[in-house]
Amino acid sequence: MRIFKKIFNFYIDGSIHVALSCYALVCMTQQMFQVSQDETTAYFAFFGTIVGYNFVKYEALARAKKAQMRNELKAISILSFLSLLAVGFYFFQLQRITQIVSVAFLILTLLYTLPFFPNRENARNWAGLKIYIVALCWVGVTVVLPVLNAEINITSDFYLKCIQRFILIFVFILIFEIIDLANDDPYLQTVPQQIGVRPTKIAGILLLIPFYFLEFLKTNFDQKQLIVNLILVSIISLFLLFANEKSSKYYTSFWVESIPILWWLMLVFIQ
Question: Angle at CA 38, nearest 5°, toward 37 and 43?
Answer without folding.
Answer: 130
